[in-house]
Structures are given as C-alpha cells and as structure tokens.
Specification:
With about 140 residues, this protein is α/β, with parallel strands linked by helices. It has a single domain, classed as Rhodanese-like domain (Oxidized Rhodanese, domain 1, 3-Layer(aba) Sandwich). It has 7 helices and 5 strands, in the order αβαβαβαβαβαα. It has helices spanning about 5-15, 25, 45-50, 65, 95-105, 115-120, 130-135; strands spanning about 20, 35-40, 55, 85-90, 110-115. The chain has a 5-stranded parallel sheet. Strand 2, helix 3 and strand 3 (about 55) form a beta-alpha-beta unit. The protein is globular and about 50 Å long. The termini are far apart.
Length: about 140
C-alpha cells in the first residue's frame, strides 16, 4: 500500500488553515462564558493525565457525530453559535486535524491549542483528576 499523503502533510495543511492559540491566550479566557474547551483525547489519556477543569470531553472518534445536528448522536452543547470551541489533544496534532474537519463541516467558531495538553501542563495550566471531576458533578 502506498500512502500518497502522510499524517505530516495532513497536519501541516490543518495548521495552515485553523486558528491556533497558545496556552497563555486560552488561560486568559478561562472565565469567558463564550469559550468552550473541548478535550478530544481518549478516555484512558484523561484517566492517566487528568483534565482541564471546565473542559468538555468529546472523544475524537465521536466528534463529527456530536457536532452535527442531523446526527442521532448530536450533543446540544455544540449548538451554540456564540461560543468558540477550542479543541486540544495531547500534543496538538489530533486537535489541528479535528479543528480542520469541523471547519470543513462549516463551523467557523473553532480553534485548537498549540502543543495540546502537554503544553498546558508544562506551562502550569490548571488540571484536575477524573476523581475530582466526578466529585463536582451533581448526583
């Protein structure tokens, strides 16, 4: 099998087309009600590394289905035109691809975090364990 366009080319294309924020820019907006952080990592990554408080977990494999109002899996949290959805993964590659896919679907209020969760943690961004997150949810 011959690959005619590898992941590096796909990521480079996505990076050239999507809005990218650094960690400091996102941290400065954490109290903005029009910002929704979207963690697209696998649940095992969240369990091992923790999560950004207030972020929404939307696994990469379900993202397009959760965003599309015509999908039986649509999540109303994605139906707000006044919000900006800022995606992140572990290192910023999957989130760039995901943000480009959402743009291809017609979303213009989407971006991603450069360096992903790894950069977030390295730069001192707030992190909570999954146990802490579960304790916050109403019973």
């Amino acid at each position: 099998m011959t690959i005619t366009k590898g992941y590096k080319a796909l990521v480079d294309e996505a990076m050239a087309q999507v809005r990218t924020y650094d960690v400091d820019a996102v941290r400065a907006r954490l109290d903005d009600p029009n910002l929704q952080l979207v963690d697209i990592r696998d649940v095992r990554e969240l369990q091992a590394e923790g999560a950004v408080p207030g972020s929404l977990h939307a696994p990469r494999g379900m993202l397009e289905f959760w965003v599309d109002p015509d999908s039986p899996y649509f999540k109303p949290v994605f139906g707000h035109a006044d919000k900006e959805y800022v995606l992140f993964c572990a290192g910023g590659l999957r989130s760039a691809l995901a943000a480009k896919t959402l743009q291809d679907m017609g979303m213009r209020n989407v971006a991603h975090i450069e360096g992903g969760f790894g950069a977030w943690k390295k730069q001192g961004g707030p992190v909570e364990t999954m146990e802490q997150r579960k304790a916050k949810k109403p019973a």
